[in-house]
Write a structure and sequence with these properties.
Length: 800
């Protein structure tokens, strides 16, 4: 308590110094707290499931491409894998059910699941119970409501269990229960429905599920993967017609939710730690200046009986009080920063992943503030208590060993600031190049001036291919006639939209043995309108595009991308060749009428996928994106599209309006966040480094006042004096740049393996940062050099 009272007294005596320290540390601590709130939410926050570290998803792999598994395969895995403690099945984003009660039609995002899903996750229902097992194999329309839908559409009534509701214009959907509040798996689901007749029975090749499994303790994912490999090999031997070339892969829940963002967040966390280190270096400089000014005070207290440990405790208490005060200021900054960052990236997370200043963030902030306080105060405290009281009382100890050791310490501070700042600038430059290269890479399509929306047609009213095709015919005709709309197309999963295909499959070329076809990779299947390629500016390499005459009754046709064409017909002309989708179902062979350019379906893939296009009039999809070339503002476009489509069917919802550019940016939000924050932190580092170097050089210059006075008296010119001081700073800056260059090389080599679009360390691209820091060092030293060179040597020597 005595140390605390003395600390506050020192702060009152020097409020300007205290304000400078609180501002410097507060900025750095606030940045760390804001970033840690993201790290806590995305990487550390416990999942709201029982023992979540033991949960995995299991899917299939074919030709290096991920896909789904069948109900029969899932049951075989359950029987043959000894380390599993439960397994359930779910579809991917199944789409939705149209709810057209009072007011505007709504689309409720839906997933089909087995009734065991909630048991495997270890999450009981809020009310009700899971449906009977028969609903997983037979078409009983049983549903579980999300908590949000229960509250918004049923006013939270507990008697909703057992009631029947109408979805997609069809009656007979029975409510079995309601999920718990904040339960959000998969993300954004509003209704969970029984799989019923969608399982494909015992057909091994009816793959439309992802398995959700729980591993027994103490086993881990490595043991599970080994057993899955064995099961996959066994199935390939027993069932070559369906499982040849197929394997299974398990992925932990944590990796599913945060695997893509982990390297980016760790890079950002490392960057803010560097900012904190640079801030601590500046605070060390300020505290060292104060410690030197308190030499006589420390000496007097030592003479009166204070031990070195007492004095160090006092000085460390002062620095910790300042850092804790900075933490309060930093938390205010962090609160606003988190709010701004959430708005900037528009990130859609599960309801239980909340990015906020929570208790763990507060504890983290308190911890780093104490560490920063001790780290900043330790060197000055050791320095201040290192000299005997007798030496300090002799004229303040001026010019002694203590001053020289302080000079060495300050030189080290300059070197450290330059090195740390250069490493941070190199990391920021790498992230900027990665973001730029991903955006500029040849995606194979253009997204400018395209507005998008989604439609999922209800199965009861749109019961067959003819009625679905007729709806989209009328929709395209109506939308094409809208003022301001230049071109319109439909496609089920356009690139970079994060829309997964429900049941990806492979293709078989005519004449290709089935065993070989089953080793073909999964393809991206697109049921599109004839205007899709021109609207997306996907180049035609040979043949022709689809036309409105490619419909039911005409010859079945398809278009493939260059990569798929070279895989199926290497060295041959693909035009006129025939292939079919899902060879096990004996689907119709389609004639290849065109080959288009490769398209990057996902932003972080190293190469294009395998794309297979068919005309929607020959093979419809109920779930389609509407793509329109338009200059209309999105709200105006949305209103016009709703009115146009409701004129066709007033009870059919249209939803998810976004510009295509926004969808592209959403798909690379990790890079956007990393780039923006690293640029900000690099800017903070440069400012802090400039201030720190200026402060150190100013103090070092003042310490040499007597020396400079003698030099000027003996005939040295002001320019000579300036050159002497700037030369010293240049030497320190060069040493710092050398260390920083080595650190930047190590950092960029490591990050180059994690980030898309960059090859690793590029010394020529680090060069501008290197030169900028040298220039900053010289500029920060030139001002105090110029000031001291203008001193009158007679006055200076008289004062000394």
């Amino acid at each position: 308590m005595r140390n605390l009272r003395l600390s506050f007294r020192q702060i009152r005596r020097q409020p300007g110094l205290a304000a400078a320290i609180i501002l410097t540390l507060g900025l750095a601590i606030g940045a760390n707290s804001a970033v840690f709130s993201f790290v806590n939410a995305l990487l550390l926050h416990p999942f709201p499931f029982r023992d979540p570290s033991q949960l995995v998803e299991i899917y299939s792999m074919r030709g290096g491409q991920p896909g789904r598994i069948s109900m029969r395969e899932m049951l075989d895995i359950q029987e043959q894998v000894s380390v599993l403690d439960g397994i359930a099945g779910r579809t991917t984003d199944f789409g939705g059910y149209n709810f057209s009660g009072e007011g505007k039609p709504q689309e409720w995002k839906t997933v089909l699941i087995t009734g065991t899903l909630f048991d495997v996750l270890g999450v009981p229902l809020a009310i009700g119970n899971k449906w009977p097992e028969a609903a997983d194999r037979n078409r009983y329309n049983r549903v579980i409501l999300s908590h949000r839908v229960w509250q918004s559409s049923f006013a939270g009534a507990r008697n909703v269990v057992g009631k029947s509701i109408v979805l997609d214009h069809a009656a007979g959907y029975y409510i079995d229960g309601v999920a718990q509040n904040l339960f959000d798996y998969p993300r954004g689901i509003e209704i969970y429905r029984s799989l019923g007749g969608f399982t494909g029975g015992d057909k091994r090749d009816s793959r439309n599920l992802i398995a959700v499994a729980r591993i027994k303790r103490p086993f881990g994912i490595a043991r599970l993967q080994a057993e899955l490999d064995a099961v996959g090999n066994r199935m390939a031997g027993q069932f070559p017609n369906t499982n040849a070339g197929l394997s299974f892969r398990a992925e932990s829940f944590r990796d599913l939710y945060s695997g893509d963002v982990r390297p980016h967040l760790l890079v950002i966390l490392g960057a803010v730690v560097f900012v904190l280190l640079i801030a601590c270096v500046n605070v060390v400089n300020l505290l060292l200046s104060r410690a030197l000014a308190r030499d006589r005070e420390i000496a007097v207290r030592t003479s009166l009986g204070a031990s070195r440990w007492n004095l160090m405790g006092q000085l460390l208490t002062e620095s910790t009080v300042l850092s804790m005060s900075a933490a309060g200021f930093g938390l205010v900054l962090a609160f606003w920063a988190v709010k701004a960052l959430r708005a900037m990236i528009g990130l859609e997370l599960p309801a239980w992943m909340v990015i906020e200043i929570s208790l763990p963030v507060l504890l983290f902030t308190a911890g780093i503030s104490v560490v920063a306080g001790v780290a900043s105060g330790l060197a000055p405290a050791l320095h201040a208590t290192a000299t005997s009281s007798a030496e300090a009382l002799k004229a303040g100890g001026r010019g002694g060993t203590k001053t020289r050791s302080a000079g060495y310490l300050r030189n080290l501070l300059i070197v450290s600031e330059v090195a740390l700042t250069l490493v941070l600038l190199a990391g920021a430059g790498l992230l900027i190049r990665s973001f730029s290269n991903v955006q500029k890479r040849n995606r194979g399509f253009r997204s400018e001036s395209i507005a998008t929306a989604r439609v999922f047609l209800g199965w009861k009213r749109y019961i067959d291919q003819e009625t679905v095709a007729r709806y989209y015919d009328r929709a395209l005709e109506s939308l094409s006639a809208l003022p301001g709309v230049k071109d319109v197309a439909v496609a089920p999963s356009p690139p970079w939209t994060r829309q997964e295909e429900a049941s990806p499959n492979t293709v078989q070329a005519e004449g290709q043995p089935l065993a070989d076809a089953l080793r073909n990779p999964y393809v991206t299947h697109q049921s599109i309108s004839e205007g899709y390629f021109s609207l997306m500016q996907i180049a035609l390499k040979s043949g022709r595009f689809f036309t409105r005459f490619d419909r039911v009754g005409s010859e079945p046709v398809a278009i493939v991308n260059e990569r798929l064409a070279s895989r199926l017909w290497p060295g041959r002309d693909p035009i006129g060749q025939k292939l079919r989708y899902d060879p096990r179902d004996k689907a119709v062979y389609r004639k290849v009428v065109g080959v288009v350019a490769n398209v990057q379906q996902t932003p972080f893939s190293d190469e294009a996928g395998y794309d297979y296009y068919v005309p929607y009039r020959q093979e419809v999809e109920w779930n389609e994106f509407i793509l329109a070339k338009t200059d209309l503002p999105l709200p105006v476009f949305s209103s016009k599209v709703e009115q146009a489509l409701w004129s066709i069917d007033s009870e059919q919802s249209v939803f998810d309006f976004k510009t295509y550019d926004d969808r592209v940016l959403d798909s690379i939000w990790q890079l956007r966040l990393s780039r923006s924050l690293l640029v900000l932190f690099a800017g903070m580092a440069v400012v802090l480094a400039g201030i720190g170097i200026y402060g150190v050089m100013s103090y070092l210059t003042i310490q040499r006042t007597k020396e400079i006075g003698i030099r000027l008296a003996l005939g040295a010119t002001p320019k000579t004096v300036q050159a002497l001081i700037v030369r010293q700073a240049a030497l320190l800056g060069a040493i710092g740049v050398a260390f920083g260059f080595a650190g930047a090389a190590a950092l960029e080599t490591t990050l180059g393996k994690l980030l898309p679009g960059v090859a690793g360390f590029d010394p020529w691209k680090t060069g501008p940062s290197l030169l900028a820091l040298l220039a900053l060092t010289l500029a920060a030293s030139a001002i105090p050099a110029w000031r001291i060179s203008r001193l009158d040597p007679a006055i200076t020597l008289r004062q000394e």
